[in-house]
Amino acid sequence: MTHxxxxxxxxxxxxxxxxxxxxxxxxxxxPALAAAVSNAGGLGxxxxxxxxxxxxxxxIKETRALTAKPFxxxxxxxxxxxxxxxxxxxxxxxxxxxxxxxxxxxxASLWEIYTSFLADPDMVEVFLEEKPAVVSFHFGLPTAxxxxxxxxxxxxxxxxxxxxxxxxxxxxxxxxxxxxQGIEAGGHRGVFDPALDDRLGTFALTRLLVKAFSLPVIAxxxxxxxxxxxxxxxxxxxxxxxxxxxxxxxxxxxDDGYRRALxxxxxxxxxxxxxxxxxxxxxxxxxxxxxxxxxxxxxxPEYPIAYDAGKSLHAAAKAKGEFGYGAQWAGQAAALxxxxxxxxxxxxxxxxxxxxxxxxQPLLG
Amino acid sequence: MTHxxxxxxxxxxxxxxxxxxxxxxxxxxxPALAAAVSNAGGLGxxxxxxxxxxxxxxxIKETRALTAKPFxxxxxxxxxxxxxxxxxxxxxxxxxxxxxxxxxxxxASLWEIYTSFLADPDMVEVFLEEKPAVVSFHFGLPTAxxxxxxxxxxxxxxxxxxxxxxxxxxxxxxxxxxxxQGIEAGGHRGVFDPALDDRLGTFALTRLLVKAFSLPVIAxxxxxxxxxxxxxxxxxxxxxxxxxxxxxxxxxxxDDGYRRALxxxxxxxxxxxxxxxxxxxxxxxxxxxxxxxxxxxxxxPEYPIAYDAGKSLHAAAKAKGEFGYGAQWAGQAAALxxxxxxxxxxxxxxxxxxxxxxxxQPLLG
Lengths: 365, 365
Known about the structure:
Two copies of one chain form a homodimer. By secondary structure, chain A is an alpha/beta fold.
């Protein structure tokens, strides 16, 4: 199969004007960000993976108050964490000196600080009641029953995939479009099983999925500007999803340390770490990624149990003015990030996209 | 700096018509392949990194007999290997049972089976005498003196880079263009120091280099068709370099096992291994990559000393009909490989490139 010759089906399906999707980014996105992107003609997104159902309902309502346009709500579909007290207490013991450095003590124990969508019927209920235009899945897929219910409610569905095998599952589940998320992406890629990570680059992944599936593909990972969006579309994607490009928008909820890092030299180098959350994610190199790369580190607790410790350590250090233990997620092209209001950024991205397409014209001879 | 608005400077500089470069691929490329690509309007390339100076002279003459067009000769600029007899004999001991399986015994000792360009004044001499139109550097750069001599001889120079830091060295050396080689690429990427590998995807790397340098950028890694070339150009590259896309051309020197793997199911999964050559490279998953991923494997000898053992084991197994120990290098999008004569493939790539650019037209509104 090749991609449909009509490469606007996705935009019509989602009810948007521009092939630009702001990535959900739990902990970074806000109703103001998502609404600004949607009002500008793209698809704004909100990650609610770290919220409970009522928290999600609240931000959906807040976003709806700011825009009448479609927006996307993203949930985490990982296997619920298996607690292991021995692993967790070893981890806390190992982190203790770092807490001490900032005059704090580690928590006595760790919790699964948020619930997988797979085990959260209340979240499904909220979606069926609030009916966001779009819901997207990360780390896997919910049951066929949940998917059928969401579709019956008129909600359009997106599923992230990082290789052909995952994409086949997304397609088989009846989801409307595949988010092809390459290795360049910041934060946690949507890998279903972290033990089976092919680490495909965005370029290869996008083209493989476009050629293998008739479903619309959305390219994600390392896309920072209109030239990147043009490249994604040239590869046959129907839209591009940008995360890191939006992180420095004033509408996000990031702290000053994260913002300074992203707009400074730290953005020149990202690395994979599983020490912050318990699941591999791409972060700017900082004190936490360096700590977690210690060869003598004990086994990391499961995701998101380790994140409980990670967030506590960040809070302790930050209270003393040290921002280097934050989850400073960023993609490989973070050095190209800009700090513009989201609506301006979307307009700028569209201008750049057209400019890039215009520059290709001479090839037509 | 942004990329020059005239995005044809590279084609004029290299004296080619199409923004298509066939990657050098030592051990795969042949004079027939390089000449066919150059005759078709692209830039054919020959990897001579595994040859001595007289071998290189021979293939340069053979290629010249087949084309009057410019072609590219590629050399390896790695630090010469440091032999370690203990490591090498341990490695051979560990491989012995695998040789035995095919009725063979491992070699008694291992050699640095080819010389780095950094330590090969005879190769420099051959280039100054034969004056190939283009010479490209992989794994690093030669001295300023050698670069000056090659330039004085009218030879155009390309240098591979896998991150901004390496690209800055390529630019400072006075090379004419940068080959931005992303993580998708098959075989050995041009990383200068394998201990400092940022593993950037082609998408992020290409855009970072285009934005950071005024030198023309050639995108490489995971590009398999005209849509990929269009995407590379949209990112601001002035040409695309394709390796795996050309491996199955009838003009290459690969064996039947490699060809069957590339055109079959094995192409669906590639992996990094340093067990075959002593330096990390992307291969289709096969018996050798599985063997080398054994957690109990001893330390691998340095590149290319380990390759001596690797080639011996492959020869022993192949003599018994087992092709699975070959260096079956392939990029992440290998599943898109086609078996076409090189001239037809170049023509097809150009048609696809134009078609992709045409499909972007509606974006101009």
